[in-house]
Amino acid sequence: MPHIIAVTSEKGGVGKSTLSVHLAGAFQERGLSAVLIDEDGRVGSALRWAARGPGLPFVVLEPEQVKPRKLAQADVVVIDTEGRPKRKELRILGERADVILVPSGVSTLELDATAELMAFFHEDPQTRRRTRVVLGRVPPVGRAGEVAREDLRESGVTVCNTLVRSYAAYVRAAELGVLCRDVPGRGAEHLRHTQQAWADIVTLSRELL
Ligand SMILES: Nc1ncnc2c1ncn2[C@@H]1O[C@H](COP(=O)(O)OP(=O)(O)OP(=O)(O)O)[C@@H](O)[C@H]1O
Ligand SMILES: [Mg+2]
Asked: Is residue 162 in contact with ligand 1, taking CB distance under 6 Å?
């Protein structure tokens, strides 16, 4: 059976699709067979992301296309969930995923929303064990990411060690329908930033599987 990673949040625009697409890409690059299920048909979704570019290096499926046979051959399945899921849907997700990944920014508002969602996931001990926050859009300069990670951990929340920093390469990748490692550009700084953005994702993928 493949390892199932569901990426979800109650707040919109926290980076679910960006993270899902890139994680699937990182697993694939590491030699694992990755499938991305796009449960969010709207504009920022993974399916539309793939359609804007030359194609992504892994299979992207709509929920209707998901067949047990297709998934059985995968090592890892990443689910990009819909924008504002209902609590009932989150509960179902908690039962079918091996890992529930909750992306969060480091601003107070985002951290409050994340803490609230984690409190819900913690109601069930099994779900609690599967749920992890990943801090994203972390300012590359300063210690906001480290501080948020420490605060969350002190409140009993499991947080991925890897901080996904904020880079323009992620935004550009979505526009071009590629992964951030493949965003074209010139100069040493561009290269450094795209490499750092990709390195964050690969490091995170190793933490997960
Ligand atoms: N690490 C990052 N650095 C910079 N920008 C980022 C990063 N992650 C996401 N973004 C940008 O933040 C915006 C929201 O990201 P994304 O669409 O992935 O969020 P989402 O949670 O899937 O949103 P929705 O709830 O609408 O589905 C996008 O413009 C994306 O390019
Ligand atoms: Mg999305």
From this structure: no
Tell me which of 17, 175, 196 to substitute to probe ligand 1's pocket, judged by most ligand atoms within 8 Å of the beta carbon: 17
Under 8 Å CB-to-CB from 101, ≥6 apart: which residues?
A: 5, 6, 7, 8, 19, 132, 133, 134, 160, 208
pLDDT mean over 133-142: 98
For ligand 1, atom 25, name the residue with the nearest CA. Answer: 12
* Confidence class for position 111, pLDDT limits 50, 70, 90: very high
Compute, in angstroms, the gap from residue 22 CA to the centroid of ligand 1: 11
Q: Which atom of ligand 1 is nearest to the CA of 82?
A: 27
Query: Are 152 and 25 spatial neighbours (Cβ–Cβ below 8 Å)?
Result: no
pTM for the model stands at: 0.96
pLDDT at 113: 95
Does the beta carbon of 194 lie inside 6 Å of ligand 1?
A: no
Fold of 3-208: Rossmann fold (3.40.50)
